[in-house]
Write a structure and sequence with these properties.
With about 160 residues, the protein is an alpha/beta fold. About 30% of the residues lie in helices and about 25% in strands. The chain contains 5 helices and 6 strands. The protein has a 6-stranded mixed β-sheet with strand order 2-1-3-4-5-6, sandwiched between helices. The radius of gyration is 16 Å and the shape is globular.
Length: about 160
Amino acid sequence: FNKIIAAETIRFIVTVAIVVYKGLKLVVYRMLTEKELPFSDFESIYQSQCADENYYCLVYESEHRVVGCINLRMEFQLHHAARICEIMELAVSSSCRCGGLGTKLFRAACAQARECGCLQMEVCCNQLRTRTHQFYLRQGMHNFHYKFSMNLLHEDDGENRLGR
């Protein structure tokens, strides 16, 4: 990805993380996937995002170990007539949760979005993730929207499950 957050200083290094941090994609894969997903598909998408200037993955490292990451997509949207940043994934290692790391990642993401000229930060999360909703509310976000989804492979599947 394009940026790395290093240790407590949260300084940015502009480069491709695969070159800088060996094995980063595997660490990010393990942190972001709550169920087994095909790694080859993940890797292909990861490589594509690394080459796309509209994606940023901020990685938090502590003691030479990745313990958190936030993946962002920035795009110009017609209905805003502006560039918008969306949090695609936010993950913190289970051993580091409730210590403020998610907040640090969120704030760094907001700073990155502002630097890239974004008007707004958005995030979608499953209705089942009530603790996550509270986290985003504590960050100052508002729940003004609904997001609808439909399984295109199994249109009669209306069950809400995590990890899909």
